[in-house]
Design a protein that fits this description.
- With 363 residues, this protein is an alpha/beta fold.
- The chain is 53% helix and 12% strand.
- It contains 17 helices and 9 strands.
- The structure holds S-adenosylmethionine (SAM).
- The site of S-adenosylmethionine (SAM) has 20 residues, from helix 11 and helix 13.
Length: 363
């Protein structure tokens, strides 16, 4: 046991002692730290309620309602279609979570956390989508006992070459809605202009490639996805500025060879969806398809990045478990898989917001 481990064990014995807790909160020197720690513990206990308050706020479009001008509870209850008492209870809860703010005149305005959420509207699509995740996770032990394929999330993410476009539409739309900030961070983290042509594998409706294509007007663009998604992507590019620049390849990336010749392949939020066996197949297939000297860029939320631990291992860990396959991986796990597929030079790229996306480059 290292010195740090021994210290942690001693600290934990102390912190779990009710007498120490009572002392720490009364001692002026430790009081503010003790209160902060107690709040963190309480947030863990009550987090599911906060999420449901947020869901109600999103479903009622409460942030949009108070965005332009502060309003009184009667007006808000009318606009939300909630009885006055229910609206007031929700407003107070939302104010406690900084989503809205109660002014001294009793009107409710936007809170700082609410304003930040309005700046990233794709979060709202995720919050609505979480209803399905919430049902899957209601009994966490039942979920964790075995890797199930009868969950709502596994039905939602139906990666199936013979699925219909309707089956693929809901998950493709959700991915497209939540892509903007990811693309921005990836484009900042890596200089695409050194490449001739990029192939985005598992590219969905092409939101990522659209951002890449707009930022780099001479880059060749290829999108690979399952046939139903590729059809939807074709429709979404039809008549647009990139229609003549983009090749769309309907392909099952795990069963069919990939189009050859790109000198950059991107996998954005793709690897974490799959177990190691599928990832090995995919990486080897990409290695074969890449032009000599080509590179692979993997971008997705990863485990092991400071400040993003809860998002990766708690949120995505459980999300992907409920989905029935995949896991958030640490860079060293990805590096091992990349090495097995023949990639030798692997490096981490710094991204602005590892909570959203981290990136690894391999050649
Ligand atoms: C989580 S989504 C990410 C989409 C997009 N890259 C993004 O970040 O918005 C994963 C994508 O991989 C695609 N996909 C999953 N399995 C696939 C397969 N076997 N062959 C081709 N595409 C696949 C899905 O259809 C989906 O579009």
């Amino acid at each position: 046991m290292s010195l740090a481990d021994r210290f942690t064990a001693w600290r934990n014995r102390l912190v779990s002692d009710p007498k120490f807790q009572a002392w720490a909160v009364r001692n002026p020197l430790t009081r503010s730290l003790a209160r902060r720690k107690a709040k963190t513990s309480f947030d863990l206990v009550a987090g599911f309620v906060y999420s449901q308050v947020l869901l109600a706020v999103v479903e009622l479009r409460l942030l949009e309602i108070v965005r332009t001008a502060p309003l009184g509870t009667l007006k808000i209850s009318e606009r939300c279609g909630l009885p006055h008492e229910g609206a007031l209870r929700l407003l107070r809860a939302a104010a406690a979570l900084d989503l809205v703010r109660e002014q001294s005149d009793g009107l409710f305005a936007l809170g700082e956390a609410g304003a930040a959420l309005l700046g990233n509207p794709s979060v709202f699509a995720m919050v609505r989508h979480h209803k399905a995740f919430y049902r899957d996770i209601a009994d966490p032990l039942a979920l964790l006992r075995t890797r199930r394929t009868d969950t709502e999330l596994s039905r939602f993410w139906d990666y199936n070459a013979s699925a219909t476009e309707q089956d693929a539409e809901a998950y493709s739309a959700l991915m497209a809605e939540t892509q903007a900030l990811i693309a921005r961070d990836v484009l900042e983290a890596y200089n695409f202009s050194r490449h001739r042509s990029v192939m985005d594998v598992g590219g969905g409706l092409g939101a990522f490639l659209s951002a890449v294509g707009a930022a780099h007007p001479t880059l060749g663009l290829t999108l690979v996805d399952l046939p139903p998604v590729a059809k939807l992507a074709e429709a979404s590019f039809a008549g647009g500025a990139l229609q003549d620049r983009i090749q769309i390849a309907p392909r099952d990336m795990l069963r069919e060879p990939l189009p050859e010749g790109a000198d950059l392949v991107t996998l954005v939020r793709v690897v974490h969806d799959h177990d190691d066996r599928a990832v090995r197949l995919l990486l080897s297939s990409i290695r074969r398809a890449l032009a000599p000297g080509g590179r692979l860029l993997i971008a997705e939320p990863m485990a092991g990045f400071k400040g993003a631990e809860a998002m990766a291992d708690a949120y995505f860990g459980l999300y992907l478990w409920a989905m029935g396959r995949g896991a958030p991986r640490r860079p060293e796990q990805l590096e091992a898989l990349l090495n097995e597929a023949g990639f030798r030079d692997v490096r981490i790229l710094r991204t602005a917001q590892p909570l959203l996306v981290s990136a690894i480059l391999a050649s």
